[in-house]
Amino acid sequence: MAINHKVPYFNQEDNEIEGWRTCGPTSAAMCLKYFNVADLGSFPQYEDDVKKRFDRLGIDHGSPDGIRRLLEGLGLRDNLTLKGSLSDITRSLDSGEICILHGYWTKPGHILVIRGYNDDGDFFVNDPHGEWNYTEYSVNSTVSPDNKGENKLYSRRLISSGANAFNWPDALDFYRNWDSNKIESTATMWLHRVSIQQRPGSNPNDIPEVKEDVSKLGEILKNRLVIKLDKLTADKELVREIQRRLNAIGLLQLSDVNGIFGNVTKNALTRFCDSEFLNNMNTGSFGPTFFQKLMDRRGTPNVPSFPIDPPGSLPNKLAIALQFTLKWEGGYVDHKDDLGGPTNKGITHRNYDTYRIAKGLPTKDVQFIEEAEVMEIYSEMYWKPSEADSMILSLAIVHFDTAVLFGVSGAVQFLQEALGVGVDGIFGPQTETGLRANNNKEIALNIIDGRIAYHRKRVEENRSQDVFLQGWVNRANDLREFITGL
Description:
With 486 residues, the chain is α+β, with helices and mostly antiparallel strands. It has helices at 23-34, 46-57, 64-73, 86-94, 156-163, 168-177, 180-185, 216-223, 229-234, 236-248, 263-275, 280-283, 288-296, 316-329, 349-358, 371-383, 393-419, 429-437, 441-461, 466-484; strands at residues 3-4, 76-78, 81-84, 98-103, 110-117, 123-126, 130-132, 137-139, 152-154, 189-196, 227-228, 285-286, 332-333, 343-344, 347-348. The strands form four sheets. Strands 1, 2, 3, 4, 5, 6, 9 and 10 form an eight-stranded antiparallel sheet that branches. Helix 16 packs across helix 17 and helix 17 packs across helix 19 (441-461). The termini are far apart.
């Protein structure tokens, strides 16, 4: 069923303050105006007042955390995720939230508002820059009222390829080459899900009408259902929704939102129940009181968490793994044909942004990353989420290096292929069982062979990547030699 919230449209191009770079404040302004937040200043245009508020507070108006801080400071709720998907957008719109999305629809990056979707699942957007047509924009006027980007229909492919990209060439390549599974399943979007916070004594007439919650949690609350623990743990989508809530309140890492009810989720749920003085984990039954408290609880936005201080020392296996990986990653690289964009010591600019935001720090160019930050990112964003520490040394080294090259989910897929288990990129019970039976060097060597085969196939599909092939193969063969000598 189609839905299209009546979000007002603002054109960034005619803003008095830096119209050329105010897609973030303009998108935020659309949400603020939709939720009836009063004028913030004396500028004729609402979006200029919003930009001025960003500047006065010293908040970065282009970063996810900066936009979240401003929206929440003005009374809205921003359920921010740095690993959003198309289905997350649809669910948010269904529940009455308005979405602000970051992506590469322009070369330097862009931010727009998603207000609804049609019967085919394509999205109605308010694009403050104008209308994007795959490779170019029909840009709004800078001198007269112009609404080229108002309520435009962007396809799921257009949204996914731009929002999951690391740079402009990446977005174009994804648009041309991704199959439907990649379009639907990739979840690396920087997504704001914005709604209003009702406070005691608020006027219901000021609250926009929202569509009934169609999520599993919403259905349970509507029908006042009681769910037994065994039924809950078997329902992957319900588990995923519970994990998202636990993540949103700071009890679960993003990497653990996978639909699998393992020990990590069980422990997080136990901590939540203890904090709310609930005994559901003891009774094995979960009713309306539990689910309402879970939905109402507020906490830290769902961005990755890191220790406040960098780790003093690395695990021994990780230190050995880094001896190999850093030898090949080297220093700062910004090759024009590298679809991953600029990297420094193997860290992409997007992962560095994610790290800095999660630490409450302003973003900066990955070229200036510090040594302690490199070590912490490798530990917290690659080593731990990939479960490399559970493997023998040779396999841990190969698995970690694969995670650096292909991402944690990609590394798990190579591992699953080598183990002969179902390939879904999730380190779940089946993968864990397969690893326990085959935690050996042979699996490590099979992963290396799989990497080489993948690299050759990738170059066949995209000849622009041929310039990297020999280096990729040399790295894989050097990795084989490195673990053979252990």
